[in-house]
Each structure stands twice: as C-alpha cells, then as structure tokens.
Amino acid sequence: MIICTMGGVKRIAVLGSTGSIGRQALDVIRALPDELKVVALTGNKNLELLKRQIKEFRPRMFYSSAKPDISYGGKFLSAEEIASHPEVDFVIVATAGKAGLRPTLAALQAGKTVALASKEVLVMAGEIITREASLHQAQILPIDSEHSAIWQCLQGEESKPQRIFLTASGGPFYHYSQSQLTEVTPEQALQHPVWKMGRKVTIDSATLMNKGLEVIEAHWLFSFPFDSIEILIHPQSIIHSMVEFIDGSLKAQLGWPDMRLPIQYALSYPRRWSNSELPRLDWEKIQSLNFEPVDYEKFPCLKLAMDAGKSGGTYPAVLCAADEVAVELFLSHRISFTDIAKIVQKTLEQHRNIPQPSLEEILAADAWAREYAAHLSPGYFPEPEQRSNPGIER
Amino acid sequence: MIICTMGGVKRIAVLGSTGSIGRQALDVIRALPDELKVVALTGNKNLELLKRQIKEFRPRMFYSSAKPDISYGGKFLSAEEIASHPEVDFVIVATAGKAGLRPTLAALQAGKTVALASKEVLVMAGEIITREASLHQAQILPIDSEHSAIWQCLQGEESKPQRIFLTASGGPFYHYSQSQLTEVTPEQALQHPVWKMGRKVTIDSATLMNKGLEVIEAHWLFSFPFDSIEILIHPQSIIHSMVEFIDGSLKAQLGWPDMRLPIQYALSYPRRWSNSELPRLDWEKIQSLNFEPVDYEKFPCLKLAMDAGKSGGTYPAVLCAADEVAVELFLSHRISFTDIAKIVQKTLEQHRNIPQPSLEEILAADAWAREYAAHLSPGYFPEPEQRSNPGIER
Questions:
Q1: Burial of A242 (C-beta count, 10 Å sphere; 0-12/13-18/19+)
Q2: How far apart are CA A200 and CA A211, in angstroms?
Q3: What is the reported pLDDT for A385?
Q4: Cα–chain-centroid distance for residue B309?
Q5: Contact B289, A288 (CB under 8 A)
Q6: Is A270 at the interface with chain B, CB within 8 A?
Q7: Of A159, A253, A264, Cβ closest to residue B251
Q8: Distance CA B61, CA B78 (A)
C-alpha cells in the first residue's frame, strides 16, 4: 500500500542519489513535480554532486558518508533514520553493495514502500527482507528493468506463472572465445553495448554475474522457484523479460533500454504516468529481436550465482562480496577478466554455509569473503592460508 | 460476468462447430471435461461432421442449416434460440460471414457471455452489438489471436493504452512484386505460412483484408480510436499483438501460433488452465523475431478496410460483403488475386453510406453489395448498370 499525503504528492527519499540509478530517479522526479517530491537525499563520496542535488531539491533530510559542509535548514540524519522517517512515504534504495541492507530493513519495519535498485539487498538477505516486509505489510517494488518487466507482466493475472525468462543482453563479449575473454581490459569491459550503468554493474553485466544476481532477486521478489527461472540472451535488450503462464501463453514487457521507465513505473504503480522525456520504441527502426541460449561454460559467474542462490544461507552474501572484491581487482588491472569467476568460485568453495542466517551472520560472512577473496590475489592461486570462516566457527 | 452452474462447469454453445475455429473449440472443451460442457452445437453444410460431433458430445440442443436426420433426444432449435437459451452460459460464435449477427445479438440480449471468433459480427454491426452488450451487461470476449493478445496485455492496467500494434504475418506473398501478385493462384493463396484456417480467412490473410477487419474489430472491442491502431508485419506470428502505454512501456503477448490458446483463454478468463495439449514456445528454436512496416500500396485491401471502419455506418458491411463475393470469385478462378481489392474498392465507391444504421439497413447494404460486386465480374470493369443502393434510397 502506497500512502500519499501532501495532497497526493508522494514524498520520496532517494538513498544513493549520486549514483547512476539515483540520478535517473531524480530525472523522473524532476519531470513530475505534481506527483513526486524529494524529501531526503543520501550520497556517498561524490560530495560535489550531492551538494548540487541538495541545492536543487532542498530535501528536508540528507546524509553523506563524508559529512558535508552544508547549511540550508535540512537535517543531517543517518540513512536508517531517513528510511524510517514519518515524513517519508516512499524509499528508493539505489545504494551500492551492502549499504542498502540496514536502511531497507528500517524502511520496511516502518511500513514504507521500498523501491529496490540495489540487487545486493535481496541477494544477501532475501529471507530476512521478505519476512520483514510481510510482517509489516510493507511493499517491495522492483526497479531493475528485468524485474519491473516481470512485475508488469504479472499484473491482473490470477494464476502463478509456469516459467520466467530473464533476458540478458549478453554484454560486450558474448561471442568472444575463451582466450579472447582472458585478454579483455577494464576499458573494454566498461563499454556496455546497450545500458549506461555504474562501473560495478557494467563489469557484472560483462561476466553475466549481474544476471545471476537477478535470478536470486527474482526468486525473492516473486517467490519463484529457481527451477522456473530461465535466462535468454537477447542482445537488443528491447524485451526486458517474459513470463509464461500455465496455458502456454507468454507476456513480455518491452521498451527502449532506459532505466527511467522502470523507475517511473515503481513510482506511478498501480497507475502509469505520461512523461514526454521517456523514449518510445520506434518500430520502423527495429527489424529484428534476436535470441540465443546462454553459454554457462564461457560465463561461469552466472552458474556460480544461481548455485549460490539455490544453496541459500550465507552463500549469496559470500558471492556478492567475493565478486565485489574481484571486480575491483580487475578494474585496477591486478587480475584478468576470467579471474573474476575463479576468485568468486574459490571463495565460495572455501565457505562453510550458515542456513537461515541472521543479519549479523550475513555481514560476518561478507567480511570473511572480502578478506579471503582479496588475499587470493595478486599472488594468484598459490593456496592462501585458511582464513577464519564464520561458517565454520558457528 | 460468467455465470457457472452445474457445479462450476461452464455450459457452452458452439455456433459453427464444423468450421476451423469450431473444431478447435471442441478440442479445447474435450481436453477440459471438468470445466467445460457442450450443451449445443450448430453447423452449416458439413452435415457428416456435425453428426459425428453430436454423437460425441450429445448436446441438449443442435441446429444445422440442412436439417439433419438425427434422433438422440437433443432438441432442434434455431441458432438464436440456442444462443439465448437458459441452459447456455457461454456462446462461442464461430460461424462464417454474417451468420453470427442475429445469434450474437440474441445471446447478448439474454445476458450471455459471447466469445467472438467471427469478425463480421463486430465489423458489420459494431455499434449495435457493443450497445446491446452494454445495455444487458453482457460480456464480449475475443477469440481472434490478435485481440486475445491485446486483451491479455490490458489485464490489470488502469491506464488506457496509447497505441496498439496489431501484428500481421503478411501472408504468403508479402515480398511479391505487383506483377507477381497478379499471377497468384487460389492454390498458392490457400497455403498460409503460419496459421491453419478456413479458406475465406486464408485468402483474406493473403490480401491483408483480414488485418483490416481486425482493426475495425479492435476498435469496437476495446473502444480504441482508429488512429491509435497500427499494423506491424511480423512474419513468425509469435508476438500476437502489443499494447503501448502512456509511459512508453509496451506489453506483448506471445505464443506458438495455435488458435486453441486464445479459445481456451476466453473460456478460462479471468483464470488460466493447464492443458498439456497446448504447445509451448521453444526458445532454443526461435533465433529471431522480425518486423517490417506494412506496405499499404501493395495490399490495398488493408487501407480500404481501415477507411471503411473510420467512415463507419454501412461501409464496413459493404466491405465484408464485397470481399466475400470477390474471394469466392477468385477461388473459382474467375478473377485474379489483385482483382479482389478492385472489386471491393469499386463497390465501396458506389455505396451511399447510412450512418448509425439499423440491423435491417446493414443487411440491406450487405445484399446490395453482394449483388453489385457479383455483377462487376466476370465481364470485368465495363461499368455495370447502377444497381439499387439502399443508401441512396433511404
């Protein structure tokens, strides 16, 4: 249930407003002043941009990990205080990595509607997050284009779907050979053929780790069994995902690849709003939509993620942490592109799982995995010393 | 509202049970004996098949234009008596041409749910039919794959769509030159690349007249303005149609081209039923979905139909009648493939429209057009005598 006050204007907190999704969320809010109002912004290190955003939107609350020298009347509060604040109706969680975990929990426990752009929240702590949402009758809405597509396709359907097809552009290297993949540079990997995204997500798209995280996210968002979720390579990223029903009928959601559309849908739901700034598909320019099966062998991150999701417990948190470390190592030229999967795999192999973990156990697994993964490099793959594993010590 | 009695089993009258759609409707009903029961069948000239169907389904009522010599306890009633009978919950209108008009009206006036496969009913008398449905709170459900697709895509959406994309396979001759089109034989035209359909519909698909009739049908079924309905050539017929919303998001319905799916959806709505006999899309075999703009010049029937729909009144009935005559002439080798459009155009040009016609005026326009069109051939295009036009004489 979305609670609107202020004469129907939705009061929004944008957590992670200086990131790629945060900026696009502000674009949508800026274009719809009659429906949406920013009441809180939080940023991380890009203080200059946060200052400009604060100057423009004059939020009543703000936060930055680097406390900014701003005095304009707005309150400096923690992200958790903001997410659960009575003056907030709707929380957009667009923070990086695990930063969104506690604010999301705080928002849900306060009964807020949460629009999730941060995959890690549900991947790391899907069981806790969905339980708290249900307990407090708070709604979690997807912002990822694939999950938004599934959500849109499920509207008005009484029957549970039979299969889900998450589409994947395949990233820039889908047709590279194994040896070509080894040579990929960070500069090449940062050029995504379709989507403009942050650096971490762009690399995750190139390894298909991103798609694996989306499978786990879809599992928690919609209670789909893992076996009903399939991946379909679709280079044009026009079909954002599909749902197959028990009678064999499929629904797909399509649109020009632009994150502002799923962001706006989450904000307008269950309605839709006209926004002249959102692009339209031009069918005179679309001659074909292509599909091919996914190559799990060439892109092992996808399988690693799906297996971690199925195993559950602390595995998904370890997956996220190891991947974050590995991507950072790749971006700083310390490992090769194909080493990313190896680091993630090795870290997962060394982890002892904790089923149904608490938030603290999840964060401990995260910390262990970061340390373990970091020490796998640069002296790569001479077996590192066995490090403390919270799973073993439980 | 669908009224179910007999312990939830829907009692169905299939009008036109020996035609292509009728037979496929019986396939669906046969596969779902717990949900569906045939209580009435009507056929036209294929008496042998009707007898076999009666023997299998033992309907309580039946009708045939050639009164059959059957005695098994079922009542012989007119199609209108059947369509409005208290023991019928759900009427499938799968008759050819204008034969469905009066039974559809009778069913709606009795408050029955009508599933329409016969395009002519809404094309010829859309205004009357939709008014009666609204007056008696009776529901008209589409069975055509395109309209079923649109209907499925509109489920759960509060906003009215911005644009509708009716997809068209383009038929077997879409890439023929003008001179090649002149040489097309009935035998070639009856080989549709995707859909198995009756003879008349197959020829209408090859001329794209069928798509024009669908535009008019979509207009009446969903109250879409004609200007919001676009045609998109999509040779594989996997995407059955698409809807674009005001935010630029599109929904498409996809499925293997098989009429049993839209037939079953109309029967199961608002639920969906599992049916192992319905085919599933195999994405390992679908490498691409192609699209191209429609060529109105090479396929003039489409434009003729859209214009007749926009003009309204008795024009659409004249269009249907002239086309039926012209297709028959083509099938009996008396005119060429490209003459079909010429006959339809000439007949429309000579017709004086009656706005907001009564059913009798529609049927008079139909009779006039049949006679006029028939006399345009075979002594083709020496101007025939001006024939009585009910529009002029009004």
A1: buried
A2: 13
A3: 43
A4: 15
A5: yes
A6: yes
A7: A253
A8: 9
User: pTM score, two decimals?
Assistant: 0.93
Q: Within an 8 Å CB–CB cutoff, is residue B261 touching chain A?
A: yes
The CATH number assigned to the domain with range B10-143 reads 3.40.50.720
Contacts of B6 (CB under 8 A, 6+ apart): B37
Q: Is the dihedral of CA A18, A21, A24, A30 positive or negative?
A: negative
Mutate to test the interface with A, among B250, B263, B285 (most CBs of A within 10 A): B250
CB pairs under 8 A between A and B: 142
Of A72, A59, A1, nearest to A25 (Cα)?
A59
> Given pLDDT bands bounded at 50, 70 and 90, which one contains residue B4?
very low
What average pLDDT does range B170-193 have in this prediction?
Answer: 91
Listed by start position, the domains of chain A span 10-143, 165-257+293-374
pLDDT tens for A97-142 read: 899 999 999 999 999 999 999 999 999 999 999 999 999 999 999 9
Indicate which of A272, A273, A288 best probes the interface with B, i.e. most B CBs within 10 Å of its own CB.
A272
CB atoms within 10 A of CB A374: 18
Spatial distance between the Cα atoms of B246 and A222, rounded to a whole number of angstroms: 25
For the domain covering B165-257+293-374, report its CATH number. 1.10.1740.10
Per-position DSSP letters for A109-166, written without gaps between them: HTT-EEEE--HHHHHHHHHHHHHHHHHTT--EEE-SHHHHHHHHHHTT--SPPSEEEE
CA angle B5, B8, B13 (to 5 degrees): 60
pLDDT tens digits, residue range A293-347?
A: 999 999 999 999 999 999 999 999 999 999 999 999 999 999 999 999 999 999 9
Is the pLDDT reported for residue B195 higher than 90?
Answer: no
Listed residue (A328, A365, A333, A335) closest to A348, CA to CA: A365
| Predicted-complex ipTM score | 0.92
Which three-class secondary structure state does DSSP give residue B369? helix
Which DSSP letter does residue B30 get?
H
**Chain B: closest CA distance from residue A121 (Å):** 26
Nearest to A252 among B252, B256, B264 (CB): B252
Q: Does A191 touch chain B (CB under 8 A)?
A: no
Answer whether A246 sits within 8 Å of B274, measured CB to CB.
yes
Contact check, Cβ <8 Å, B283/A165: yes
Distance from CA of B368 to the nearest CA of A (A): 40
Query: Does the pLDDT of residue B2 top 60, yes or no?
Result: no
Distance CA B12, CA B34 (A): 13
User: Considering only CB atoms, which chain B residues are within 8 Å of A247?
Assistant: 261, 264-265, 268, 272-275, 278
